[in-house]
Amino acid sequence: MTTEPGGRSLQRRLLASMAAGFAVLLLLISLLLWAYARGAANRTYDLLLAGAALAILERTSFAAEGPTVDLPHSAMEILALNPDDRVAYRVFSPSRGEITGTAALPEPGRALDDAPHFYDAEIDGTPFRLVSQGRRLTAPEGREWVGVQVGQTVEARRAQQWSLFLNGMAGLAVVSLIGLGFVWLAIRRSLAPLRQIERALRHREPADLSRVEGRPPREIRGLFDAINGFISRLGQSRALTESFIADVAHQTRTSLSALQGHLSLASDATGYDEMRARVLKADRQAQRTVRLTNQLLANAMVIHRSDRGSLAPLALRPLVRDTLAEMLRDSRLRRLALSFEDEGLGEGGDRIAGDPVSIREALRNLIDNAVRHGPAENTVVVRLAEAGTEVVLSVEDAGPGIAEADLPRATQRFTSISRETAGSGLGLSIVGAVAEGHGGRLELGRSRLGGLRAALAFPRLMALLLFGVWAAALAPPAARAETLNIFSATDGPAMAPLIAAFEARNPGLSVSYSEFQTLTLHRALLDVAPGAMPDLVISSAMDLQVDLVNRGLARRLDLPNELRPPDWAAWRSELFGFTFEPAAIVYDRRRLAEDELPRSHRDLASFVRDNEARLSGRIGGYDLRGSGIGYLFATQDAIQGPQAQRLAEAFGRADLRSFCCTAQMVEATAEEEIAFAVNVIGSYAAAFAADRPEVGLHFLDDYNLVMTRTAFVPLAAPRPDLGARFMIFLLSDEGQGLLATRTPLIPIRPPAGVETPILHQIEAQRGSFLPIRLGPGLLTYLDRLKREQFLSGWDASLGRAVDGHAP
């Protein structure tokens, strides 16, 4: 046994034992700390769930048709205080069923009451934390319960749980390390006598095998005696080694002396027959001497090459064939029936980690033993076969074999079992050393031919069999045709320069671009067939995009920090905005002078009311039932204050005209059909107005809503890597620069040095732009009841029936 530098010391072992004790204590403390961290995280985030549930319950009431709810925006804003988690909610009546929200949320398993009940459940395979709470309302038939369930995914609370736990464990770890430091000092001081013994042994001469003298402490007396016992055994081992060397020298000297004697007698012979007999004896002795020398050299060579680090992948089949072909040139093997069998050995099944020189020497020794100890017309069969995870090379002969009682000593050096064919006694010893050096084994037994069977079992090398598959997997992707499939609610011509640049930078890749309206795109993704999901989804309807992501349809992307958009334009690292597009007013310069344009939403309502006759039928706006972006802008205006209601009423008296999109409103303004249009997409309006001098673009001073075109990579995308690659391109300096200079869109992060008229106008009124934040707050007006209530109120303000026709 050797002692390697840096090996485990007694000091370290004692320290490890103490550390194990500390670890057990830390484990017990960590279990308590984990439970505390979980409870603290749940208490923190459960307050948000409880607040949202209470806010919803306060807005529940009974109408003529039964229980209803006016979903408050504040409830979703409370949930948005946790910016990372998806949300789900449900309002229901135990007696009347669903009212609104996500259908069939998991029940808490208890009766509905007015106290909040928190519980964990899974929704579509995703862990959620939910609260269930009820409220009794007065109905015509009596008091009835209305219940609310509100839930969030658990990512944020788990992150806080881990943060609390790890911070606590860090403090415990510091204290433990300080304690172990004191333990280490105590151990070193206690083990100082051992270092004294070590110094005494280190400075001894190699030939000094005398006992170590001294009076060690009582605790290490056994170790002291063991060292002296080892020194005594080492002396015996050295004596045995010297004896072995002497035996080798004796064997060699005896053989050479016998050879010299035969030659001397031959030289003294007087007759030819006498001289010839003595020369024949000398020749046989010379052969024995040569064999002994070769065996001694082979033994030394095998021991020298037994280092496993020198082994390399090797195929045994050609090695065995070449060795047998070479040995058949020996005249002694001419009467030998030598055959080789490798039936059933699969392709590549003969590969091992081996040394060809050592294995060839082992095979030579096995065959030579069969020749020496077998009959004159012997039969020798060499077999190569698979045996599980091993490759077995065996040699069988028809000789006398070895008795079972003699098998254990057959591999000992200088041990010859047969007196009649006594050799050097090194052959099987060499074969055993070869097997050991290859991590295998040598097995001796009775062969099917009646003689000896010697089998070398080598571990099989399997890793290289997968090389072809591995090489194919590394084939360059450019060699394969690839298609990026995009579903988008953005005009194709606006995206064309970006797509062309992306394809130019990715040879072999093409982009399939499918264009939708925002509401159509939303419905298409909810009803998409399996396997037909796109690789990227782009839309200007931020609320609809948030709804899709909240349903768990998006894949998380770890974008570099330098590419991430502002915080308001990203949610859950799944949904990212890449444009900055304010709501604007386009107006007919021929009808309205710039100095008479209103400066705020309050002024806008007054301006319409004061010029009602002049503007009747000449104000444009979105059809909120058919336009996702129009509905988004209208609901966000409603959140800002009561001016939205005043504006809707003023527009109703002025007979507001509804349009599907910004392009129609700008075109109607240019054709003098309308005097102005509100909440148009500023980027598109600026691009149209650039070619129509009669059309002006106007921003208000109090606030201008800003939406961002968002994109996400679907969770079930066939090629999410391509979707992520295009997302990175959109947010890169190159992509943002192309947005500013080659498209009508406005980049969310304009690169340095890029200036356009619309960017200059935005910079001049920088403080008036109010970005719409991505998050659960946008789900408020997507609620079925809330949407119908808002649209009904909008229609009523405009003096229209619910179906959109004038009454």
Automatic annotation (TrEMBL):
<dbReference type="Pfam" id="PF13531">
    <property type="entry name" value="SBP_bac_11"/>
</dbReference>
<feature type="domain" description="Histidine kinase">
    <location>
        <begin position="247"/>
        <end position="462"/>
    </location>
</feature>
<feature type="transmembrane region" description="Helical">
    <location>
        <begin position="14"/>
        <end position="37"/>
    </location>
</feature>
<dbReference type="Pfam" id="PF02518">
    <property type="entry name" value="HATPase_c"/>
</dbReference>
<dbReference type="GO" id="GO:0000155">
    <property type="term" value="F:phosphorelay sensor kinase activity"/>
</dbReference>
<keyword id="KW-0418">Kinase</keyword>
<dbReference type="Pfam" id="PF08521">
    <property type="entry name" value="2CSK_N"/>
</dbReference>
<dbReference type="InterPro" id="IPR004358">
    <property type="entry name" value="Sig_transdc_His_kin-like_C"/>
</dbReference>
<dbReference type="InterPro" id="IPR036097">
    <property type="entry name" value="HisK_dim/P_sf"/>
</dbReference>
<keyword id="KW-1133">Transmembrane helix</keyword>
<dbReference type="InterPro" id="IPR005467">
    <property type="entry name" value="His_kinase_dom"/>
</dbReference>
<dbReference type="InterPro" id="IPR013727">
    <property type="entry name" value="2CSK_N"/>
</dbReference>
<keyword id="KW-0902">Two-component regulatory system</keyword>
<keyword id="KW-0808">Transferase</keyword>
<protein>
    <recommendedName>
        <fullName>histidine kinase</fullName>
        <ecNumber>2.7.13.3</ecNumber>
    </recommendedName>
</protein>
<feature type="domain" description="HAMP">
    <location>
        <begin position="188"/>
        <end position="239"/>
    </location>
</feature>
<dbReference type="InterPro" id="IPR003660">
    <property type="entry name" value="HAMP_dom"/>
</dbReference>
<keyword id="KW-0472">Membrane</keyword>
<dbReference type="InterPro" id="IPR036890">
    <property type="entry name" value="HATPase_C_sf"/>
</dbReference>
<feature type="transmembrane region" description="Helical">
    <location>
        <begin position="164"/>
        <end position="187"/>
    </location>
</feature>
<dbReference type="Pfam" id="PF00512">
    <property type="entry name" value="HisKA"/>
</dbReference>
<dbReference type="InterPro" id="IPR050428">
    <property type="entry name" value="TCS_sensor_his_kinase"/>
</dbReference>
<dbReference type="InterPro" id="IPR003594">
    <property type="entry name" value="HATPase_dom"/>
</dbReference>
<dbReference type="GO" id="GO:0005886">
    <property type="term" value="C:plasma membrane"/>
</dbReference>
<keyword id="KW-0597">Phosphoprotein</keyword>
<dbReference type="InterPro" id="IPR003661">
    <property type="entry name" value="HisK_dim/P_dom"/>
</dbReference>
<keyword id="KW-0812">Transmembrane</keyword>
